Amino acid sequence: MPGRSSSNSGSAGYISFSGIESALSSLKSFQSCISSGMETASGVAFDLVETQTEVSSEYSMDKAMVEFAMMDRELNHYVKAVQSTMNHVKEERPEKIPDLKLLVEKKFLALQSKNSDADFQNNEKFVQFEQQQRELKKQWNPTEDGRHSELDKIKDKDASGAGRERDGLQADREADGTEGVDEDMIVTQSLTNFICPITQLEMKKPVKNKVCGHTYEEEAIVRMIESKHKRKKKACCPKIGCSHTNVIMSDLIQDEALRRAIESHSKRRHRPLE
User: Fold this and answer.
1) Strand ranges for the chain from DSSP E
2) CA of 115: how far to CAs of 51, 109, 224, 225, 270, in Å?
3) Are strands 206-209 and 215-217 parallel, antiparallel or unpaired?
4) Helix axes 124-140, 18-50, angle to 10 degrees
5) What's the average model confidence in pLDDT over 33-46?
6) Which residues are CB-contacts of 57 (< 8 A; sequence separation ≥ 6)?
7) DSSP code for 210
8) What is the dihedral of CA 140, 144, 146, 147, to 10 degrees?
9) Which residues pair with 207 in a beta bridge?
10) What is the pLDDT of residue 15?
11) What is the pLDDT of residues 112-122, one digit of tens each?
12) Mean pLDDT across the chain, nearest whole number?
C-alpha cells in the first residue's frame, strides 16, 4: 500500500528518504561553517594588507580562500548529486531498490569532472574577497596593483628620461603654485566616496550594490528599501545620476575595504599633532 514499505526487501514500492534528508540538512549546515571560515580568512588577509605584513605562500590567505572555495564547490556538488538521485528514484519508482550509493557517486563524479578555475567566480564570497583585497592593496601599497606593474616595465625602459620629465613637471608646478593640486583632488575624491548618498554623513557600515557598484550606509539603505516596499514601490539607487531602479536586499554586500579605509582615515584625522 502507498506510504508503507513493501514486505519484499527487494521492492521499491516506497522508499523512505528521511535519513538521507536529515544527513543533507547537516551537510548544508556545514556550508555555513565554510562561509564563516572564508569570512575569517578574509579578515586576516585584510589585516595583513593594512599592516603590510609579508607571509610565506604556505600560510597565504589567498591559498586558504581557494581551498575554502574548493570545499564549498565539492560540497555543493555532493548535495546536488544526492538530491538528483532522490528525485530520480521518487519519479521512476523502480521495482528493485537501486544502489543509491553508486548512483550518487556517479552523479557526483560527473559534476566534479567539469571543475575549472572559472567556477570560483560563481562563489560570491571568493569574488568579494578578491575585489576588496585588490582595493585595499591599492590604498596601502599602490605598487601591488597588477596594472601598475605593467607601468613599471614601461618606465624602466627609459627611467632617466622619465626622471627628467618628472623633475621638469615638478619645477613647473612649483613655479605656478599648483604643486599638490593633484594630491588634493585625490584626497577630495576619496572623502566623497566615504559619504553616504542618503544620510550625507560619513559611513560606518558601508554596503555595496552589486548591480551598480554604489555604496550606502547599511541602516539607511535598508530603511529606504523597506519603506518603499511597504508602499509597493521599487527602491531606486539614491546616488545622483544612477539609472538603477530596483535596489534589493540580496544585492547588498558588506564593503569591508571601504569600511577599513574610512576607519583608517578617521584615525589619522583624530591623531594628536606631535
Assistant:
1) 206-209, 215-217, 252-254
2) 35, 10, 41, 38, 50
3) antiparallel
4) 0
5) 91
6) 63
7) T
8) 60
9) 216, 254
10) 67
11) 999 998 888 88
12) 78
DSSP 52-108: T----GGG-HHHHHHHHHHHHHHHHHHHHHHHHHHHHHHHH--SB---HHHHHHHHH
Taking a C-beta distance cutoff of 8 angstroms, is the pair 193, 258 a contact?
Answer: yes
Residue 24 identity? L
Distance CA 207, CA 87 (A): 39
- 246 and 228 in contact (C-beta within 8 Å)? no
- Strand segments (E) across 160-269: 206-209, 215-217, 252-254
Is residue 258 classed as helix, strand or coil in its secondary structure? Answer: helix
- Determine the length of the chain: 274
pLDDT for the residue 142: 60
* Whether the Cβ atoms of residue 191 and residue 234 lie closer than 8 Å to each other: no
CB 63 within 8 A of CB 48: no
Sheet holding 206-209, edge to edge: 215-217, 206-209, 252-254
Neighbours of 236 (CB within 10 A): 14
List, for residues 158-186, the tens digit of each pLDDT value. Answer: 444 444 444 554 554 455 444 444 444 44
How far apart are alpha carbons 31 and 35 in whole angstroms?
6
Q: Which of 251, 186, 256 is nearest to 213 (CA)?
A: 251
Min mean pLDDT across 123-127, 163-167, 243-247, 258-262 is at 163-167
Q: Which residue has the cell 549546515?
A: 29
